[in-house]
TrEMBL record:
Protein's name in the database: Diacylglycerol O-acyltransferase
Family according to the record: Belongs to the long-chain O-acyltransferase family.
Enzyme Commission code: 2.3.1.20
Domain of life: Bacteria
Keywords annotated in UniProt: Acyltransferase, Glycerol metabolism, Lipid biosynthesis, Lipid metabolism, Transferase
GO biological process: biological process involved in interaction with host; glycerol metabolic process; response to hypoxia; response to nitric oxide; triglyceride biosynthetic process
MF terms (GO), sorted A to Z: diacylglycerol O-acyltransferase activity
Cellular component annotations (GO), alphabetically ordered: plasma membrane
Reactions listed under catalytic activity: an acyl-CoA + a 1,2-diacyl-sn-glycerol = a triacyl-sn-glycerol + CoA
Residue ranges occupied by any O-acyltransferase WSD1-like N-terminal domain in the UniProt entry: 5-283
UniProt pathway: Glycerolipid metabolism; triacylglycerol biosynthesis; Lipid metabolism
Length: 477
């Protein structure tokens, strides 16, 4: 029997459009040793590890007549050189040039006739550095492990490139025979007998496919739906963050120091508000301050009651040296108080709102999110898309995804990763998404924005840096 896509994974394919590509990405920057790092070494690393993850050599194939969900089949013409590509920045190889490169390649949809991932080795960065840019479709990612191609590339220990006599060289891969159209139809019918309610939905075809897939996914969401229902009764405020979007993007990376967030948390814990302020609260307060400065700089009206509503799949930071907190993920909807002029007060309001949701059972735990195909941002974006773009706008103004990484170095071969930035997709009507990753003492922001709706996303990035400085210094605006 072929490995069939779940209804949720299939929905990421059905609902994908030119303006809303359903893949996630990452930008990892490395410092190579004197021996350097090249394309062949990257290919070898990936080849060595794909044998344990056959999904990355499989492609999606539709069932004739759409009488069943698509299936995964081995790509008999798998071409590693197509998926692993090489690029170079012109001199001087600045961060701005890297950002422009990412903004060009990330919005492009992945080729449905091939396995749904791509990797770019970007050479020529200043200081001898290089970057690895990844793209992985949400349909490819397992809901429990949330694995994407970036996890295949990096490791916790440095590994020199194997020579030709190394026993670790990849075993030759032999694809399984692709099923015929008749076999696909037969398997779908057998599956339908086992699960008769599924075929009733699927044979309706056309637009109803996406609707029915969405209904099943929403029914499985459980507690998350309760949060959505409560939020829908209180529509998100109008905001320049919500606009009709195109296919072109701007992408900005912002690097900050994790110790600065810890300083803010420690200082406020000794103040008049002895609240359980988390590092994540400080991150959200930093973003709120950045939004405030950005809106004022745009000449937008900002009153004491102005808020930006964020959908936040939250990963709580801690001091565990392993840096892995997979069971501490909560999905919250929080109003960022951008109208509040005091930085410390913004933080306390956010901390109170977040704690209220978590303690009141309004947030969704990690297991629930895993059942919805992981807490990666497209999961919640897709939920909004299934309800339609109008509903998505009503729910929130911006998605902020905060994912912790290890606080020890990672390596590609023997090259150390010095920073890593997420690239999170946009949903319909959402001009901006913010991805945040902590890694080895740093907190790294990736701001992905519609090119026309947010030409000043770079100003927002600078405003976030200034907001953190305001919080850590203790001064108030």
């Amino acid at each position: 029997m072929s490995d069939r896509l779940t209804s949720l994974d299939a929905s990421f394919l059905y609902l994908e459009e030119s303006t809303t590509a359903m893949h996630i990405g990452s930008v990892m920057v490395f410092e190579p040793l004197d021996s350097g790092f090249d394309y062949d070494q990257l290919v070898t690393i990936i080849e060595n590890r794909l044998s344990a993850i056959p999904r990355f050599r499989q492609k999606v194939r539709d069932v004739p007549g759409r009488i069943g969900n698509p299936v995964w089949v081995d790509d008999e013409g798998f071409d590693m050189s197509y998926h692993v590509r090489r690029a170079a920045l012109p001199r001087p190889g600045s961060d701005r040039q890297l950002q422009d490169f990412v903004a060009r390649v990330q919005p492009r949809r992945l080729d449905r006739t091939r396995p749904l991932w791509e990797v770019y080795l970007v050479e020529g960065l200043q200081g001898g550095r290089f970057a690895i840019v990844t793209k992985t479709h949400q349909a490819l990612i397992d809901g429990v492990n949330a694995l994407d191609i970036a996890h295949v590339i990096v490791d916790s220990v440095p590994e020199p490139a194997p020579d030709e006599s190394s026993p670790d060289l990849p075993v030759r891969w032999e694809p399984s025979r692709a099923p015929s159209s008749v076999e696909l139809v037969t398997e779908a019918l057998v599956d339908a007998v086992r699960r008769p309610t599924q075929v009733v939905d699927l044979v309706r075809g056309g637009v109803n496919d996406a609707v029915n897939v969405g209904v099943r996914a929403l029914e499985s969401a459980g507690a998350f739906l309760s949060t959505v229902a409560r939020t829908a009764a209180r529509p998100a405020p109008s905001s320049p963050l919500n606009a009709e979007i195109g296919s072109a993007r701007r992408w900005v990376m912002v690097a900050t120091d994790l110790d600065d967030y810890r300083i803010v948390r420690k200082r406020l814990a000794r103040g008049a508000y002895a609240e359980d302020v988390t590092i994540n609260d400080v991150v959200l307060a930093t973003i709120a301050g950045g939004f405030r400065t950005w809106l004022l700089g745009r000449g937008e009206p900002v009153s004491s009651g102005t808020v930006v509503r964020a959908m936040v799949p939250v990963s709580i930071y801690g001091d565990d040296p392993s840096g892995m907190y997979a069971n501490q993920v909560m999905a919250c909807v929080v109003n960022l108080p951008v109208g509040e002029p005091g930085a410390s007060m913004r933080l306390h309001q956010i901390a109170f709102a977040m704690r209220q949701q978590m303690e009141g059972g309004q947030a969704v735990g990690a297991t629930s999110l895993a059942n919805l195909a992981g807490f990666a941002p497209p999961t919640l974006h897709a939920l909004g898309a299934r309800l339609g773009s109008a509903m998505s706008r009503r729910l929130y103004n911006v998605m902020i995804t905060n994912v912790p990484g290890p606080q020890t170095p990672l390596y590609a071969g023997d090259a150390e990763m010095v920073s890593t930035y997420p690239v999170t997709p946009l949903a319909k009507g959402q001009a901006l998404s913010i991805g945040i990753t902590s890694y080895n003492g740093g907190v790294y922001y990736g701001l992905n924005a519609d090119r026309d709706a947010m030409p000043d996303v770079g100003d927002l990035g600078q405003s976030i840096v200034e907001s953190l400085a305001e919080l850590s210094s203790g001064r108030e605006s």
